């Protein structure tokens, strides 16, 4: 009961926090910029990512038979990798966006115009989909002969291929290579982007430097805590971002006034 209540609370707070960020960004025209466009995508992904595993985990805390069908397992595995990979791509794109904004401010709206932002969004979702389809296809093509149980509260490739009745060594290498290459490339882009940003900030005036550092610190914190619950993302971005806090207060004030009518 205590475990159920704890995870249910975290899940509800994650949904409320991230959905509130999306609604606030849509509602406030001052936040209709590339940075907040990508932030709304991040919040949407966090909602979806959490929903892939948490509801089933909550059900299992009350069920004696913690079973999942093969179709449901494959579906969960597909969306788990889709949202995880898409989020990695998105964090990389957000780092590039901050690099352009800070290091090339005069060309920012030319480089990161809305057409480019939409194309980047389509590209990162497409990349996540291709990655997920590749891993899922490799997994479901294997012959399975039991046992039909997974010692985990969600279905993922490493746990599932252990049940295959064939040599999975090559498949495991392909899976590690696929995920590893994506992680390494994105990590290098992130490190290079922020290294250049930090060097550039040394030459800026104090006020501009403070605001830029605040924005970058929020993003770096999210990247560092990538494996921690998405509940932290709305907290990090609202506490360290004056524009988000002001827009959120304005939105909540309007909701409160409407409720009193």
TrEMBL record:
It holds the Pfam family 7tm_4. Its main location: membrane. It is found in: Cell membrane; Membrane. GO terms for cellular component: plasma membrane. Residues 17-225 form the G-protein coupled receptors family 1 profile domain. It is a multi-pass membrane protein. The chain crosses the membrane at residues 6-27, 36-58, 78-96, 116-134, 181-201, 213-236. GO terms for molecular function: G protein-coupled receptor activity; olfactory receptor activity. SUPFAM superfamilies: Family A G protein-coupled receptor-like. Putative odorant or sperm cell receptor. Belongs to the G-protein coupled receptor 1 family. This is Olfactory receptor. It comes from Gulo gulo (Wolverine).
